[in-house]
Give the backbone structure.
Amino acid sequence: MFSLQGKKALVIGMARSGQAAARFLAKQGALVTGTDQQSEDMLGSGLQELKKLPISLITGGYPEIKPGDFDLVIVSPGVPRNIEPVLAAERCKIPIWSELELAGRFIKEPIIAVTGTNGKTTTTSLLGFIFKQAGLEVVVAGNIGVPLIQEVEKNLEKPWRRVNYWVVEVSSFQLERIEAFRPHIGVFLNLAPDHLDRHGDLETYGRMKARLFANQRSDDYAVFNLDDPGVLSNMNTIPGQRCGFSCCKLPHRGIGVQGEQIIYNFKGRDELLCTVQDIKMPGSHNLENALAAAAASLLAGVDKEYVAEALTSFPGVPHRIEEVRILDGVCYVNDSKGTNPEAVVKALDSYEGPIILIAGGRNKGGNLDKLMRKITKKAKALILLGEAAPLFRQKAMAVGFDKIWEVSSLAEAVRLAQSMARTGDVVLLSPGCASWDMFRDYEERGNLFRKVVEEL
């Protein structure tokens, strides 16, 4: 196994995954320095726990990096590629890894890794649910909110534990800095404009996502969306075995829909899994997520009865089209994880009734045109907050939608929506933006929405 003993390691970015990486490195005998441009009091109580370990901490700025200073640099997902310590490490030819790459070096069991613009958390959670229904030992971690390296550390402390599979949600930021990370089963859900403020254009973003398959071998599997042109354009040179999923046809090898039946074919014959109506989660996008999770589970050897049973009982995940409450005939829905325009479109399409949409936050550079056209068809009102509010207002008015209100807080948005709503309406928080202008993350935003709604 890869040894870190005596290695001089720098961790850049000391939020959740950075803290987990620093702790792991120190416990593996590395000489660790953790750094973040934020001050110590902004990095939470976890940083105080790190002080109990032999870790040097530099906050409020970054150290100068010279040749020989470090053997390894770990960058947290939110750290920009062009900051000086990263550029200096590149000039000094120091290996730069994501926390995902570091964790992968210590995993012996097979990995299922899920990426895509939308649906990653739902699909990853559903996979974990399926494996648990089948009585298999599974670890669910990654970009889903639990740092993978944290779970690796726990597993190394329990050598008697036998893990059947690791199910990991991975982001484009994490995939930027992999070298050897290899999932036995990689899942590419979809591709839509997102994080263009980081990647520049959709083509580059797609290439980052497709790095998921870069280190696969001929006995590994690439599960991908046959209905998504952006995904297909990145599947030309895949070393693993290709397995498609589709909501509108039956793939030659894979899983798809015929009429109302979900049918899979991995061994040269068609087999019925269940029907579309059996899937509990609402929305056509969740049908895609279910197909992807089913394909990966079946390829991993899970019995089809367990897969079908899980699809009929899995309720979904927090902050993703999560129905919080029905009050006076109005349904309040928390979709705080809808952080790009395409996700909001899918959320809007999940409901038939009139929708009061609460949106806004920090724009990530996505194209708003499709979303605004959808709003004109599905929304009775648009309530905006955060940095992107003026841009969203401008774009909405450009397509003739003028039922727009701007507010200064999420609580104000919920109360305003309640005053407008009538029986049969849906109040939907689906921001289409990152949360960082007003909240620590989408979870804090979603939790506040839930709290305010429950207090109405």
Remarks:
- The chain has three domains: 8-94, 101-313, 322-454.
